[in-house]
């Protein structure tokens, strides 16, 4: 799933290529992706793009008072083309969900792999009209998100486990499964540790890890084309997706906890005092 660093990099990429360009046509091929009907997609035709912003994991293209806002979900991606095919995109069984055609012949496709269809597209006058945008927590790289802000977030989360708190978009916007694993590994904290139980030193370490991991991922992606961002994300991960491999820090074997529709990875030596977490419902390990 694209998370905040990749979405931020896509926003920069689109800002450089789309602002000042006119939308010729938006072609919908996966009707389940469109979550709004008024204004219609056709209302964007002929409008000049005047900005590209990010809200958590949502991308927002503004065009003369309207906003094309989309969330790539778990299996979605944006594919830029300097020259789109001249023939209109047609509905079918392939991965293409939406095509945005610009006045210089360029544009981009939104695609979604797999059978689940969770990619979401909205056309709105205000992004805050989208419920999931309106309820987003603070942006962890925003200037207002200081250590006191993180302290307040964790205090408000009570005994909730750190992993879940970092992933909750209503608490902190933009962090997903991969970067929450990376942040907790860098901070040397158990994913199951209660949010409100951190010592002042642990909180400071978590804050620095959060800023460093997200900021570093964005820095590594600077200047990359959209097609290269996935590979850059994977190459920069130290624990997520690396179960069974040695930890780069201590050499211990990276372990995994599986859930119904996801999993987390961690280093027992770095994060849990050498102990393995068997299951989030069964483990009593909190430190």
- How many E strands? 10
Major sheet size, sense and barrel closure: 4 strands, antiparallel
- Name the CATH superfamily classification of the largest domain: MutM-like, N-terminal
Q: Can you give the mean pLDDT?
A: 92
Pfam families: Fapy_DNA_glyco (PF01149), H2TH (PF06831), zf-FPG_IleRS (PF06827)
GO molecular function, one term: class I DNA-(apurinic or apyrimidinic site) endonuclease activity
Keywords: DNA damage, DNA repair, DNA-binding, Glycosidase, Hydrolase, Lyase, Metal-binding, Multifunctional enzyme, Zinc, Zinc-finger
EC number: 3.2.2.23, 4.2.99.18
Descriptive notes:
With 287 residues, this protein is of the alpha+beta class. It has two domains: 4-134, MutM-like, N-terminal (N-terminal domain of MutM-like DNA repair proteins), CATH 3.20.190.10; 147-271, Helicase, Ruva Protein, domain 3. 28% of the residues lie in helices and 19% in strands. It contains eight helices and ten strands. It has helices at residues 4-18, 131-134, 147-157, 162-167, 177-187, 200-221, 229-236, 268-271; strands at residues 23-28, 51-55, 58-63, 66-71, 76-81, 96-102, 107-112, 120-124, 255-258, 263-266. The strands form three sheets. The chain has a four-stranded antiparallel β-sheet with strand order 1-6-7-5, with no helix packed on it. It has a four-stranded antiparallel β-sheet with strand order 2-3-4-8, covered by helices on one side. Strands 9-10 form a two-stranded antiparallel sheet. A hairpin with a 2-residue loop joins strand 3 (58-63) and strand 4. The longest helix is centred in the C-terminal third of the chain and has 22 residues, at 200-221. It is elongated, with a radius of gyration of 20 Å. The two termini are 28 Å apart. 38% of the residues are buried. Mean pLDDT is 92; it is low at 281-287. It comes from Microlunatus capsulatus. InterPro entries: FPG_cat (IPR012319), FPG_N (IPR035937), H2TH_FPG (IPR015886), Ribosomal_uS13-like_H2TH (IPR010979), Znf_DNA_glyclase/AP_lyase (IPR000214), Znf_FPG/IleRS (IPR010663).
């Amino acid at each position: 799933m694209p998370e905040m660093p990749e979405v931020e990099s896509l926003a920069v990429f689109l800002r450089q290529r789309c602002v000042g360009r006119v939308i010729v046509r938006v072609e919908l091929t996966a009707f389940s992706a469109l979550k709004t009907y008024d204004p219609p997609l056709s209302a964007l035709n002929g409008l000049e793009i005047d900005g590209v912003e990010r809200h958590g994991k949502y991308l927002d293209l503004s065009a003369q008072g309207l906003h094309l806002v989309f969330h790539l979900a778990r299996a979605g991606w944006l594919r830029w083309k300097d020259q789109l095919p001249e023939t209109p995109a047609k509905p079918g069984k392939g991965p293409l969900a939406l095509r945005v055609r610009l006045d210089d012949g360029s544009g981009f496709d939104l695609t979604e792999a797999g059978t689940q269809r969770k990619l979401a597209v909205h056309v709105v006058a205000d992004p805050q009209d989208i419920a999931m945008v309106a309820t987003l927590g603070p942006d962890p790289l925003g200037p207002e998100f200081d250590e006191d802000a993180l302290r307040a977030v964790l205090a408000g989360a009570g005994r909730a486990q750190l992993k879940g708190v970092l992933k909750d978009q209503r608490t902190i916007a933009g962090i997903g499964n991969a970067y929450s694993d990376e942040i907790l590994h860098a901070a040397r904290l158990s994913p199951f540790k209660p949010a409100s139980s951190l010592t002042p030193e642990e909180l400071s370490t978590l804050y620095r890890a959060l800023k460093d991991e997200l900021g570093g991922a964005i820095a590594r992606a600077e200047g990359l084309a959209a097609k290269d961002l996935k590979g850059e994300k994977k190459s920069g991960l130290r624990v997520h997706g690396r179960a069974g491999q040695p930890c780069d820090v201590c050499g211990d074997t990276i372990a995994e906890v599986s859930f119904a529709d996801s999993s987390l990875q961690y280093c027992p030596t770095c994060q849990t005092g050498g102990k393995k977490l068997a299951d989030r419902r069964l483990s009593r390990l909190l430190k």
